[in-house]
Amino acid sequence: MDYRKLGRTGLKVSPLCMGTMQFGWSLNETDSQRVLSATFDVGINFFDTADIYSRWVDGNPGGISETYIGNWMKQAKIPRDQIVLATKVRGTMGKGPNDQGLSRVHIVNAVDASLRRLQTDYIDLYQAHWTDDDTPIEETLRAFDDLVRQGKVRYMGASNYAAWELMQALWTSDKYNLVRYDSLQPHYNLIHRDEFERELHAVCLTYGLAVIPYSPLAGGFLTGKYRRNETLPDSKRAEGRKRDMTEKNLALIDEMEVMALRYKATISQIALAWLLADPVITSPIIGATSIEQLKENLGALKVRLAEDEIAFLSRMTAWKNEDEEE
Ligand SMILES: NC(=O)c1ccc[n+]([C@@H]2O[C@H](COP(=O)([O-])OP(=O)(O)OC[C@H]3O[C@@H](n4cnc5c(N)ncnc54)[C@H](OP(=O)(O)O)[C@@H]3O)[C@@H](O)[C@H]2O)c1
């Protein structure tokens, strides 16, 4: 496995990260643990979760994904120092006004709750899930700085920040000598490009932030299993994918299928290889719901797309006006 640095830090992570949002939603605990063990066995050392996963499921209080991971580490006797555990804070975890957000009070409570569920005494990468307009960024960063000093957290990251918000956070850390965000977790894939590429790409490149994109396969659409005139696949996420099934995106899938044949690869592998071809990308977060999907996605690490193939896919999914293109 070609481990790489998490941005400017000395922390080494695998070039794919295993996402666990599906746990307790698409997968029960036994199947989740099987996927986790298979992931660890192939050398992936990077795991992403969040306290709120998966609170959107009826009857699910949140924290399930963290609980499954904690149980797995204990039951499978995973050496804690051999995995890089990333989780997030910000979402709503209770009924009270302080059970959400990035205030000092919620962060201090939330980190202890995550540590309890994960059955560990530190989190490698603690991420602000999204911004909190009610809390000054200085308060948030001071609370995070305290967690790092206390040893509860090793590195800090952000997710779903706009470029100006990320710059504001970096500037505030610099001004007050506080821990800074060393990674960004943006929504980024072949059919969702502008949000990251418009300005965040340049911020991450310039300031050495690791980029760990989520939904690299557009929730399954970029695997090729959503097709014209075919019934939707049996997936909890199928209804949500209907919005991706535009003529432009389906034509992309057709072209990716042809390209995949040339590389003796699969459509998913082409989608991941396109992301991995950009040196700013550290580790796409994959969301496999089975060991077969994990193995297929892992195969992307062997696919090296030629420059003209990368350019072709980028042209097919271009978001800039033509006169803005270089
Ligand atoms: N920061 C945030 O706001 C945020 C938001 C979303 C996600 N995330 C993180 O990013 C992770 C990944 O996100 P995502 O689940 O949207 O990623 P994704 O890779 O775009 O989609 C994963 C889904 O695609 C399907 N799939 C994956 N590999 C496949 C394959 N080889 N063949 C066929 N189907 C395949 C599976 O769903 P089915 O089997 O059900 O079809 C799987 O759940 C999450 O687990 C979470 O850790 C973060």
Structure description:
It is a single chain. The protein is an alpha/beta fold and 326 residues long. The protein has a single domain (4-227, 278-290), classed as TIM Barrel (Alpha-Beta Barrel), CATH 3.20.20.100. It is 39% helix and 12% strand. It contains 12 helices and 10 strands. It has helices at 29-41, 64-75, 104-118, 137-150, 163-176, 194-197, 200-207, 238-241, 247-262, 267-276, 291-298, 307-316, and strands at residues 4-5, 12-13, 17-19, 46-48, 84-89, 123-128, 153-159, 181-185, 210-211, 285-286. The strands form 2 sheets. Strands 9-8-7-6-5-4-3-10 form an 8-stranded parallel beta sheet, with helices on one face. A two-stranded antiparallel sheet has the order 1-2. Strand 5, helix 3 (104-118) and strand 6 form a beta-alpha-beta unit. Helix 9 crosses helix 10. It is globular and about 50 Å long. The protein starts with a strand and ends in a 10-residue tail after the last helix. Residues 19-22, 26, 48, 129, 159-160, 185, 214-220, 223, 225, 233, 235-237, 268, 285-289, 293, 296-297 line the site of NADP nicotinamide-adenine-dinucleotide phosphate.
Output the keywords.
10 strands, alpha/beta, binds NADP nicotinamide-adenine-dinucleotide phosphate, 326 residues, two-stranded antiparallel ribbon, TIM Barrel
How is the largest sheet built, in terms of strand order?
9-8-7-6-5-4-3-10
Average pLDDT, all residues = 96
Q: In percent, how helical is the residue content?
A: 25-40%
Which value, in Å, is the CA radius of gyration? 19 Å
From the 3D structure, determine the CATH topology: TIM Barrel
List the ligand species: NADP nicotinamide-adenine-dinucleotide phosphate
Which segments are poorly predicted (pLDDT under 50) over 5 or more consecutive residues?
Answer: none
Instruction: Count helical runs.
Output: 12
Could you state the CATH homologous superfamily?
NADP-dependent oxidoreductase domain
Cα end-to-end separation: 35 Å
- Assigned CATH architecture: Alpha-Beta Barrel
The largest β sheet comes out as: 8 strands, parallel
Class in CATH? Answer: Alpha Beta
Number of individual domains: 1
> What portion of residues belong to β-strands?
5-15%
Helix/strand/pairing category: alpha/beta
